[in-house]
Amino acid sequence: MPMLRPQDSPTRERKCLNGLWTFRLDPEGAGRTAGWWRAKLDQAREMPVPASYNDIVPDLAVRDHVGDAWYQTTVRVPRRWTGERIVLRFDAATHRAVVWVDDAAVAEHEGGYTPFEVDITDHVRPGGTVRVTVVVNNELSWASVPPGIQQQTANGRTQNYFHDFFNYAGLHRSVWLYTTPPTHITSVSVDTGLDGGTGTVRYAIQQTGNAEPRVILRDADGVQVAESEGAEGTLTVPDVHPWAPGDGYLYELEASLHDADGNLVDSYTQPVGVRTVQVRGTEFLINGEPFYFRGFGKHEDAPIRGKGHDDALMVHDFELMEWIGANSFRTAHYPYAEEVLDYADRHGIVVIDETAAVGMNLRVLVTYGRTDMPPTYTEQTIGSATQRNHLQAVRELIDRDRNHPSVVMWCVANEPDASGQEARDYFAPLFAEARKLDPTRPVGFTNMIADRPDTCALSDLADIIMVNRYYGWYAHTGDLALAEPALEAELRAWADRHGKPIIVSEYGADAIAGLHAVVDTPWSEEYQTRLLEMYHRVFDRVDAVVGEHIWNFADFATQTAIIRVDGNKKGVFTRDRRPKAAAHAIRRRWRKI
Fold it and tell me: Are 476 and 442 in contact (CB under 8 A)?
């Protein structure tokens, strides 16, 4: 059941703890033994929350730090919160965290992109202050999602990982203190349907304590359109206004608890978009109508703040997507901040929601000259411990996001090794878990070029074929005449073998902004534009293709590597969101579709 986000209501109140916290790196891991949480952090500097810490300080030791990073702040608990249940919530701590309130350890969490919270009522005094300390750890292992490995060198500890974006760390999203009544609603879930002009909203409420649940559904003007009593039920909405791509119409479900005398005990409001999602043959249907995905893989990435959530940057990115004619994006390669999905809900933007399972493919490293890598799936590499964390990541993703109408599909992994029985044994339980938790949405994964239509061991588990392809860049580099028929032949092979909708979930080429060429030379803005135009000619000829997501929306930071000069340059916008020539070409295409 979905974890409820903090909100202000007649029975609840929240206090945002964002701002400047004290901060100290701990490369030796001394703080846990020495009990740094028991007092004011010594030798600390200030650090903004939310933000990645890596690029804030002009010091390579900070940027490339591996290990623990300590944050601390002092919070005054409002006196009016006496008698209330008080909860401390972290929207994300990458990649894991331990939290103390004063001297008491209150929470631990594994996974860098989903929220966690803890009831701290017994540890605080309304009207007083409390010290909150959290140690965030960025170490990746074979068991973590995503995976990585540690190495000890003469210069200290380093970390190698297998995904192509920088391993930013810290408190990337908001931190909250909030209240509920002792008897309160713990979760609200909704599933919607359409039958002609009539909508349905199936709801389920969970609660603590003894009180009577009620629900009221109101339209966007605040007019009540349906009501019910009980913890579960189905509301009928005549003359429904569906949520649709480009039309983010939202109803509001007010769930409430009442005592025996009818007095309000607790209330929570949940936005609801009434819509349906279905796969039929090679079509992807929203509200029974074929939908074609136009958009991007993105990243939570920006100069200075790294992956730290920023409302100004978020709105600007959405405005640029509207300018270019995009209608969708994939949360590559991890769940994005909940504020992003809220915005997509309100504006009718379609989202493919992805776990942080990236870099689970040791075969691909051979193409980069690594000959020392073991098989991907073993108990010493990607094994049962990884799978347990991966299953939890799927659960937390769906638990957090299942009420968002913008989310139309779950993606369990990006470019995993999809060959052989070992891959199937690893992934089959993940697909099954996603479908058990949410039978209303399709489930998929993104396939890389090494696993072909006739050899991929996972594609029959997926409802949709999603392929990341780089013909003209990594294959047939610089030769679009060879790349075009090769791309078309493979897409037709996928369609013929599987008979499912195909989304080309990544395609593109690096381009250095300002690099121009008379002939189509790789890395030039002209070549990037010509390559994208070639892909679009192919998409228009293959009926099973129902979506095009360019890699990437904007340039982004990566590990230091000689093939990555100041990061990945496949964006159609620069990292500071200036359009390359390709952005104008894409705009001409997408605004006509």
Answer: no
| CATH fold of 293-478+502-518+549-590 | TIM Barrel (3.20.20)
CA distance 123 to 183: 19
Q: Give the separation between CA 326 and CA 571, rounded to whole angstroms.
A: 14
What are the extents of the domains in the chain? 14-180, 185-275, 293-478+502-518+549-590
Q: Are 472 and 533 in contact (CB under 8 A)?
A: no
Q: Angle at Cα 248 formed by Cα 242 and Cα 250, nearest 5°?
A: 65
| Same fold yes or no, 14-180 and 185-275 | no
pLDDT tens profile 147-167:
999 887 777 788 888 889 999
Query: What's the pLDDT score for residue 581?
Result: 97
Which CATH superfamily does the domain covering 14-180 fall into?
Answer: Galactose-binding domain-like (2.60.120.260)
Q: How many helices, marked H, and strands, marked E, lie in the chain?
A: 9, 30
Give CA–CA dist 274/244, Å, rounded.
8
Q: What is the pLDDT of residues 340-373, one digit of tens each?
A: 999 999 999 999 999 999 999 988 776 555 667 7
Q: Which positions are catalytic?
A: 415, 506
CATH T-level assignment (fold) for domain 185-275: Immunoglobulin-like (2.60.40)
Reading the block at residue 518, the tokens are 């008379």
> Look-up: residue for tokens 């701290």?
120
3-state secondary structure 212-225: EEEEEEECCCCCEE
Q: Do the Cβ atoms of 415 and 447 come closer than 8 Å?
A: yes
Angstrom distance (rounded) from CA 112 to CA 95? 4
Q: What is the mean predicted confidence (pLDDT) over 213-234?
A: 97
Angle (nearest 5°) at CA 519 between 514 and 523: 45
Mean pLDDT (the chain) is 95
Query: pLDDT at position 270, please?
Result: 97
Place of tokens 């949940």: 270
For residue 73, the tally of other CB atoms under 10 A from its CB is 19
Helix (H, G, I), strand (E, B) or coil at 39: coil
Structure tokens at 143: 């068991």
Statement: residue 1 has pLDDT above 60:
no
Whole-model pTM: value is 0.95
Per-residue pLDDT reduced to its tens digit, 426-435 = 999 999 999 9
d(CA 272, CA 479): 48
Backbone φ and ψ for 590, nearest 5 degrees, come out as -70, -30
